[in-house]
Design brief:
The structure is a single chain. The chain is mainly α. It contains five helices and no strands. Helix 3 (about 50-55) packs across helix 4 and helix 3 crosses helix 5 (about 75-85). It starts with 6 loop residues before the first helix and ends in a 17-residue tail after the last helix.
């Protein structure tokens, strides 16, 4: 049998949970996506966490928390402040559950 390297398939086999349909796994993926978006935007702008924190009017530790995939306290107002400091806009969409966005 060939070695499996696909993380989704490994999770399915080890836990019996399908990360692509399980509500808790989907929420974790969304939290990770938001954290990654903040990190990517900050690093693309060439800023450190401290520099972004200063531009937003918060502390480096808050930015660090927001970039942590385990953090669940993302607020729309904070995301807007970060976007403004990075000369970006926040876009929120509500789509049918059956549609996956990229």
């Amino acid at each position: 049998m060939a070695k499996i390297t696909d993380a989704v398939e490994i999770l399915k086999r080890k836990t019996g949970i399908d990360p692509e349909t399980d509500p808790e796994m989907l929420q974790i993926a969304e939290d990770y996506r938001i954290a990654q978006l903040i990190y990517d935007a900050r690093t693309a702008a060439g800023l450190t966490q401290k520099q972004l924190a200063e531009a937003v009017g918060t502390t480096q530790s808050v930015i660090s928390q927001l970039e942590d995939a385990d953090y669940e306290g993302h607020s729309l107002s904070m995301l807007r402040r970060i976007a403004k400091a990075l000369h970006l806009e926040v876009e929120v969409r509500l789509v049918p559950e059956s549609v996956k966005s990229s």
